[in-house]
Design a protein that fits this description.
With 115 residues, this protein is of the alpha+beta class. Helix content is 47%, strand content 22%.
Length: 115
Amino acid sequence: MRSADPPIHGHAQRLRRQAPKAERLLWANLRNRGLAGHKFVRQLPLGSYFVDFACRESRLIIEIDGATHSTDEERVRDQGRERYLKAQGYRILRVQNADIYESVDGVCELILATI
């Protein structure tokens, strides 16, 4: 991170560089309007949160869930995050890592159906 970069921008860049494999696989299908012409961005800062992927024009957030969303504490934190994001006018689609590994095409179909 260059010293002139705002902290949020630098944090988003780090998250993109360190993206888990499932996020990279899905991003390969979403980037450059690759999903039926819809523009997605990744690691978008919204309030104090960073969302995995967002399509601003359809107000859809896609969250990729791995093993880190399995405890009661993590689920409570996710619920608070979802309340905030929904209050900003977004819909949230949660996708499991395993679903992306098993059928990234199926996940893309689900995203299109949700849009």
